[in-house]
Amino acid sequence: MKKKLLIAMIPVLGMGTLVGSGFSAWVFGNEALETFNFNGAVTVEPATGDLTLDCTEKNFSVTLDQGGKENVDNAVGVTVSNLSTITFSLTTNDTTVIEAAEPKYEAEIKWSFSLTDGSETGTTNVNTYLALTTDMSNLGVNDYAALTTTGGTLNSNGNIKYTYSAGTWAFTITMPSKDKILNYVDKPSTYAEWEKMNNDLDGKKFNLVSSIDARIVEIGA
Q: What is the DSSP string of the chain?
């Protein structure tokens, strides 16, 4: 009886041995979690783009005539009065970066001129009859021109001069002569054409618009 019991236990012991050797390497899904603090500081650079533009409104008058008997030259017969100069200023609240020995920022400016209706109803249609001359177009500064604290002219344009003092640039624009500001688009050649122009324009108002674009930029950026 003891002999049979011993034989029956041998396979069980053998199975235990195989299982133990086949999974001798153990893998557990343990996790490690830690939080590390890195002390950082945020610096916001001073704003340098706070600019103020100031221009005084200037009233002027335009007289239209033929410019001589049967004169068909569109460049003759338009006279502008009381518009010899235009002045305006550009001011920034940040003078230290511009006046420093090695300035980090500079002021830049550009502008152009155009004609628009000045009537409340917008029915003057001034551009149908009048246009800015080439002399006026040459006053425009198409690309940004850098300003200096020593003053001077823009893009070597002698008609646009400026000075600098305590964060303010003061500009003086010398306009072309009174007969070189506006031209006719198409001068009337008949009484009917003159009458229509007279009805559309006589006593009406329009604006000579100066569009100014100024900015403060970082040098070398």
A: -HHHHHHHHHHHHHHHHHHHHHT-S------------------PPPP---EEEEE-----EEEE--SSTT---TTSSEEEES-SEEEEEEEES--HHHHSSS-SEEEEEEEEEEEEE-SSSS---HHHHEEE-HHHHTT-EEEEEE--TT-EEETTEEEEEEEEETTEEEEEEEPPPTTSSEEESS---SHHHHHHHHHHHTT--EEEEEEEEEEEEETT-
Q: Which residues contact 55 (CB under 8 A, 6 or more apart)?
A: 86, 87, 88, 89, 210, 212
Q: Tell me whether residue 76 is exposed, middle or buried, using C-beta atoms within 10 angstroms of its C-beta: 0 to 12, 13 to 18, 19 or more.
A: middle
CB atoms within 10 A of CB 212: 15
Whether residue 77 contacts residue 183, with contact meaning beta carbons closer than 8 Å, is answered with no
Only one residue has tokens 């950026």, namely: 221
DSSP bridge partners of 55: 88
Query: What average pLDDT does range 74-99 have in this prediction?
Result: 84
d(CA 149, CA 107): 10
> What per-residue confidence (pLDDT) applies to 18?
44
Task: Give the predicted TM-score (pTM) of the model.
Answer: 0.72
